[in-house]
């Protein structure tokens, strides 16, 4: 989770839309990706990003889509 969380924060903060970041946990063999797909502001001015993520656990690949918004402390919080 630590590897995935750090990659998510960095990807949402620094990647351009369509730019993928990967993570890998050498201890468990799990891996995954984060790809921001769209950046926008809410009506109240909060910066948000939609993203696509994949996770490979035990040889099984799962894909998901979500949305994260920047919090007042500068971190990104998944909101959907």
Strand arrangement in the largest pleated sheet? 1-2-3-4-5
> What's the order of the H and E elements?
HEEEEE
The counted number of beta strands is: 5
Strand content of the residues, in percent?
over 45%
Please tell me how large the radius of gyration is: 13 Å
Quaternary structure state of the chains depicted:
single chain
Helix/strand-derived category reads: alpha+beta
Low-pLDDT residue intervals, each spanning 5 or more residues: none
The proportion of residues forming helix, as a percent range, comes to 10-25%
SS element count, helices: 1
Tell the overall outline: elongated
User: What is the typical, i.e. mean, pLDDT?
Assistant: 93
- Main beta-sheet annotation: 5 strands, antiparallel
> Termini separation (Å)?
18 Å
What would a concise description of this structure say?
This protein has 80 residues and is α+β, with helices and mostly antiparallel strands.
Description:
The structure is a single chain. With 80 residues, the protein is an alpha+beta fold. The protein is built from one helix and five strands; from the N terminus they run αβββββ. A five-stranded antiparallel sheet has the order 1-2-3-4-5, covered by helices on one side. A hairpin with a 6-residue loop joins strand 1 and strand 2 (31-41). It is elongated and about 40 Å long.
């Amino acid at each position: 989770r630590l590897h995935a969380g750090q990659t998510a924060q960095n990807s949402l903060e620094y990647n351009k839309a369509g730019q993928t970041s990967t993570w890998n946990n050498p201890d468990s063999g799990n891996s995954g990706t984060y790809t921001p797909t769209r950046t926008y502001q809410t009506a109240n001015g909060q910066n948000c990003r939609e993203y696509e993520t994949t996770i490979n656990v035990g040889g099984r690949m799962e894909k998901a889509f979500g949305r994260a918004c920047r919090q007042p402390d500068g971190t990104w919080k998944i909101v959907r």
